[in-house]
Amino acid sequence: MILDLNHQSGLVYGRAASVGADTTARINAHVDAALVARNRQQRPRDYLGGSRVGEACARKLVYEVAHMPKDVGRDFDGSILRIFDAGHQFEALSIRWLRQAGFDLRDRGADGEQFSFVAAGGKLRGHADGVIVTGPEIGIRWPSLWEHKALGQKSWTDLVKRGLRLSKPIYFAQVQLYMAYLDLEVALLTALNRDTLALHHEVVPFEPAEAQQLSDRAVDILRAAEAGELPARIAQARDFYLCRFCHYAARCWEVPA
Ligand code: SF4
Questions:
Q1: CA of 151 to the centre of ligand 1 (A)
Q2: How many whole angstroms from 239 Cα to the centroid of ligand 1?
Q3: Is the pTM here over 0.70, yes or no?
């Protein structure tokens, strides 16, 4: 039997577009449902991640550490989970490109595990993307902490323009804490532009006082979560821009401060 692979060739363009849209919606519904299901199966962290300590709102961090449920409809959906997944793939690409360029970039220690630290009795932890042991002469002293971020165009451009400390204070805090606990004096942040695949690199020196403040903040957050206390809100009104994007806004503003 000969298959007629062109049996739908009589479709008019308008109808073909609508069939295509239907197909897209149906397939994506399955893809996103699978991503959401996989995400739900992951065990929630039982610690405060070093990558979160620089979050501007201490109250939000306490909600996270205490595993308070997010507001209805504010869990990560398929579109966000696809971006997270893509981030891992982009990171693997950047690692490959840097290694090809002669950087001895290790994403695992001698034990085969990610470079990581544990502090505050196991309640504060961090997992680094890697350590560059040595590499070409680029005016930076090795070894260096290596952190990778895959960013959309707008976010990437802002990082290039304003630098890590101002543009991405959470990531700046992350690398400061990681350097402190992994005993490294410098970090190299690689930011890949998800739209153009352009690479931006920023050298971030270790700032001990900054790292100490962040470490103290982490301990305060953990103490508050254990004691069931809620730190003050970051704003006076719920239409503050950070609150508008916060996944705990309904919970946060429905209780007295
Ligand atoms: S709604 Fe605003 S104040 Fe409340 S936890 Fe979120 S960011 Fe903080």
A1: 24
A2: 10
A3: yes
